[in-house]
Task: inverse folding
């Protein structure tokens, strides 16, 4: 009988042997005595006893079927294992054998010269929570070469506790939002709070936005600079108004002189206001001029969207009708809090099967969208508009509506409504020139925006005493005014739930307007047939405007009596006075020392006396 002798298993093989067995019942000796070859592309050391000792060649890994599989893209394989590359790295080809074959991902990263690790490439910084690289060379943040950290760009501010306190303090103490004839700051602040209120809340965490757009009325220099609010001068020598709001006030709050009538006393007011409507101290009540489709009094910054059914997807019409918040904010820069007015047009030669929607512009979103260009071009743009405005305020009040119309590229045709003023040839020329300047300075291409006025001079009745004034002066229409009914002694209702039913006009003749002088090349401007049709369908510029006596003035305005009957004119309390019980009474001055922290002083203004406000409750 031949003697069996056990020898060590050769390289590339493995044999189980009997050493590991304690029970030999039912075993086949051949399975333990004879060597088995390692899987293809693998090998083992001499004397291997288990399959696991067979190691795949580099560039391959042992899969669940005990086969050596080629290392996939993005990994490297060694000692039969599929290994991940270090953070921010991956292999560029399959079959990688070594960690050295891992490369930095795309252009986001670059290999550090000393550590060999992938770090964010120039112009980017790492976000700790995700370890992703964020671009910081553009808005709303920029790279700081000193400490390789993202910093807020001009037009934005850092969302830290100190800035949040400054925002609440100035929002509470500011008086401009209470001007009875000016809804601009009131509505802009409300929109701003709706967009960024959560980020500005007292319990904001690290998960909130780091850089926020500059709030209305403030100036934001970016980087680590604090929010800056202009020093509030109660009674400046010359009345001015802020021309750029929100994120558009990138470096300093730009102002323009208020329109004024040389024959009237100047209206002294704070320089902290926004919008030309805050320049006026009196307004006349006339019949409502809006159609049943367009309730102009319900909108602060109205705009028209023309949606042709054949050219637009059903989802576009549905999003507008259903007031989809995301669509309103991102696609049409509209305020979703204000429901749209709607008119369906059919059997019309110019607008066959179309919808007309009237929405309220989201001026904050418009500002953020154009913040980069505004930061670079703000000074040039302001100076150019100041030159052509001729003291009317039209060039500046048209700026945001023009930018709104230029922002929309979602299958709808925007038509902006020129805020406030009654149309005449001079003002139409200024609007046309403003469009040209905005598109040229900010290098915006595309079709010129279309626009309409809410009223024209011809609507004033020849028999009306206002007609003579209109013939000689410019006319400003106030919109979105709060009704004074049942709120005589209350605080100003910032929600403005009840609107005035009449229309209120202020007439003025700016000292810089030269009558009969038109802008060259724009003397014979005629609205396009489409614009004329839209205006007719909305019923604008049609109904005669006549004065209305006996109307209740807007909230916190005084109505004087002449010849035993109420005058058509409503007045804002001037200088050191505020509205109380239907009359203007003298303010009580309160110094900052009277209001200890956390209280702040809300200075006496048109609608309220000086008082202390608890900042901690705001």
Result:
């Amino acid at each position: 009988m031949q003697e069996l002798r056990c020898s060590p298993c050769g390289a590339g093989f493995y044999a189980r042997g009997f050493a590991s067995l304690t029970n030999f019942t039912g075993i086949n000796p051949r399975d333990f005595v004879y060597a088995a070859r390692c899987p293809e592309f693998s090998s083992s050391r001499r004397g291997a006893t288990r399959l696991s000792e067979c190691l795949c060649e580099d560039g391959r890994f042992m899969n669940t079927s005990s086969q050596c599989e080629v290392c996939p893209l993005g990994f490297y394989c060694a000692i039969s294992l599929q290994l991940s590359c270090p953070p921010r790295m991956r292999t560029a080809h399959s079959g990688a054998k070594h960690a050295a074959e891992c490369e930095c991902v795309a252009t986001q990263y670059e290999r550090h010269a000393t550590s060999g690790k992938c770090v964010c490439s120039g112009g980017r910084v790492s976000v700790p929570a995700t370890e992703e690289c964020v671009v910081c060379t553009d808005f709303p943040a920029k790279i700081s070469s000193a400490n390789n950290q993202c910093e807020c760009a001009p037009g934005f501010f850092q969302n830290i506790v100190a800035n949040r306190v400054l925002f609440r303090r100035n929002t509470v103490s500011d008086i401009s939002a209470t001007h009875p004839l000016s809804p601009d700051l009131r509505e802009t602040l409300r929109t701003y709070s709706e967009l960024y209120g959560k980020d500005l809340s007292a319990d904001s965490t690290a998960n909130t936005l780091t850089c926020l757009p500059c709030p209305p009325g403030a100036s934001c220099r970016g980087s680590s600079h604090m929010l800056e609010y202009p020093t509030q001068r109660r009674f400046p020598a010359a009345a001015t108004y802020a021309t750029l709001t929100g994120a558009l006030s990138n470096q300093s709050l730009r102002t323009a002189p208020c329109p004024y009538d040389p024959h009237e006393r100047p209206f002294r007011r704070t320089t902290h206001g926004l919008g030309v409507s805050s320049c006026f101290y009196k307004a006349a009540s006339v019949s409502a001029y809006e159609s049943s489709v367009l309730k102009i009094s319900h909108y602060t910054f109205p705009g028209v969207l023309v949606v042709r059914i054949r050219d637009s997807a059903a989802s576009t019409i549905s999003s507008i009708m259903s007031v989809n918040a995301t669509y309103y904010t991102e696609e049409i820069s509209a305020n979703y809090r204000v429901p749209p007015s709607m008119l369906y047009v059919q059997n019309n030669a110019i607008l066959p099967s179309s919808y007309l929607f009237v929405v309220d512009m989201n001026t904050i979103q418009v500002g953020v969208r154009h913040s980069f260009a505004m930061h670079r071009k703000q000074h040039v743009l302001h100076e150019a508009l100041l030159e052509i405005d001729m003291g009317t305020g039209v060039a500046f009040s048209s700026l945001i509506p023009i930018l709104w119309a230029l922002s929309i590229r979602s299958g709808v045709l925007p038509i902006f409504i020129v805020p406030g003023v009654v149309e005449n040839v001079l003002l139409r020329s200024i609007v046309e020139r403003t469009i040209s300047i905005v598109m040229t300075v900010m290098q915006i291409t595309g079709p010129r925006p279309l626009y309409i006025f809410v009223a024209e001079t011809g609507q004033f009745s020849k028999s009306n005493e206002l007609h003579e004034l209109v013939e000689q002066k410019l006319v400003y229409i106030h919109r979105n005014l709060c009704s004074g009914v049942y709120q005589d002694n209350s605080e100003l209702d910032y929600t403005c739930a009840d609107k005035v039913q009449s229309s209120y006009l202020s007439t003025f003749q700016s000292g810089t307007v030269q009558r009969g002088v038109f802008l060259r090349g724009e003397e014979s401007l005629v609205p396009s047939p489409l614009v004329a049709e839209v205006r007719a369908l909305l019923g604008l510029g049609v109904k005669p405007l006549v004065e209305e006596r006996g109307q209740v003035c807007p909230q916190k305005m005084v109505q004087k009596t002449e010849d035993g009957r109420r005058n058509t004119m409503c007045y804002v309390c001037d200088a050191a006075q505020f509205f109380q019980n239907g009359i203007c009474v003298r303010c009580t001055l309160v110094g900052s020392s009277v209001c200890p922290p956390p209280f702040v002083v809300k200075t006496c203004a048109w609608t309220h006396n000086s008082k202390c406000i608890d900042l901690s409750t705001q």
Summary: The longest helix spans residues 371-389. Residues 161-617 form one domain. The chain has twelve helices and 34 strands.
